[in-house]
Amino acid sequence: MPIITRPPDNQSYYGIFNDSFPPILDGVTLTVENYVHWLPKYAKKPCVVTPWNPVAEKAECEVIKYFSLPIQSRHPYRYGYPKLDPFIWRKLKNTDFQLLHAHCPFSSGRLAVYVKRKNGIPLIGTFHSKYRDDLKHSFKQVPWMTDIIMKRILDFFNMCDEVWIPQAQVEETVREYGYKGPLTVVENGNDYASVVKGDLMDYKKAAREELGIADDEMALLFVGQHIWEKGLDVVVETLRKLKGKVKFRMNFIGTGYAADEIASRISEYGLDRSVSMHGVISDRKSLSRYYAASDLFLFPSFYDNAPLVIREAAALGTPSVLLEGSTASEVVRDGKNGFLTKRDPEEFASLVAKLSSDRNLLKEVAVGARNTLVRSWEDVVGEVSDRYDSLIARSQRSSSLILA
Length: 404
Fold this sequence. Notes:
41% of the residues lie in helices and 16% in strands. It is α/β, with parallel strands linked by helices. The chain has two domains: 8-189 and 377-403, Glycogen Phosphorylase B (Rossmann fold, 3-Layer(aba) Sandwich), CATH 3.40.50.2000; 200-372, 3-Layer(aba) Sandwich (Rossmann fold), CATH 3.40.50.2000. The strands form three sheets. The protein has a seven-stranded parallel beta sheet, sandwiched between helices. A six-stranded parallel beta sheet has the order 12-11-10-13-14-15, with helices on both faces. Strands 4-5 form a two-stranded antiparallel sheet. The longest helix is centred in the C-terminal third of the chain and has 27 residues, at 377-403.
C-alpha cells in the first residue's frame, strides 16, 4: 500500500499549482500567495506545487517542488521539467488532494492534469495571461514552436472541470485561442484595500513627503515586468516629450529583459534627474508608498488581461492611464475612475500635461478609482472557497451516479 501524504488534522489539501512562486514576484504569484494566506480562514489547507528555485523563502503552507532550470530570456523565471524529476509523480499521486487549482497551463498545469487523471479529483484552471504573446517572444528563433505549445495550452484548459477568467473581457482572448467551453468570472483581489486610514489625500501627501516628491511635480509610476510587450516604449517616449514642458518624477519598479535598454534610453534622452529605476521592491509596505505618492499610473499595455497593479494603484488613490480597447481597460470609465488614450506617446504626453494643471480632476478620478476598483483578497477568497465547495459537491454527485 502506498503511503498517502495527509495534511494536519487529516484534512485533504487544496492543491494550488503555478509555475512561479516567491522569490519570483508577479501578479499571478501574488494571487497564489493570497489564496494561500486566506484559504485557511475558510477551513481549507492549501498546498502549492511549483518548480524548484535555488533561493528558498519561507511559505505559509506546504510546498511541493520539482526540477527546474532558468529561462534565459525571462530572468528570473524558471521552467519546470517534471519529466526529469523521478520523484514528483509518485509524490503527487500519493498526496491527499481534495481539489486542484492550476494558475498556469505549463509544467505545473500538466502536473495538475496528471493528478486529476490518476485520482479523479476536480480541476480548475485560471486563464491569467496572453500566453501567445509570451511564446512569440520566447521562441523568436523557432516561431513554429508557438503553435505547438498553444495546442498544449488549449488541451490543458479542455481538461479542466471549470475555467476561470479574472474579468469578462478576457473571454475574447480565450475564444481566440480556441477554447469553446463555459467560463466563470472570478475577480482578483487587492491586499491594499484597507491600507488607507483617514483622508485619502492626506495619506497621499504624507507618502510624497516621505519620498521627497515636491508638490509641483507630476509623480508618475510603472510597476511590473520590464518587457516591451507592456508598452514601455510608449512610456519612455512620453517622458521624452514631457521633458521641459512638465515638471515630473517617474518611478519604474520591477525587472525584466528590457530594463537595461530602458535605462539606456533614459540616459540618452537626458532624463536621469527625473526618472528612477528601482528594480523589484518586494516589501509590500515600501511598494505601497510609491503607489500612494503617485499622481498617475502609466500602463499602455495591450498585453495584459486583468492586471493587479491597476487595482493596487487605485487602492492608494492613483488612477491609471490605459489604452482604449485594451482588455485591461474594461473596468475603467474615462475621466471617472481612470483615463483612456491611444497607444501614441504624443497623446499620452498631452494627457499627462493636461492633468498636471487640473489637480481637481485628478482628485475626483483618484477617489472614483478607489471606490470602484478595490476589493479585498479576503472577500475574493471567500467567494473562491464557496466555488470550491460547489465544484466538489458536484463532482461527488457525479461520482455517485456513475457508481450507482
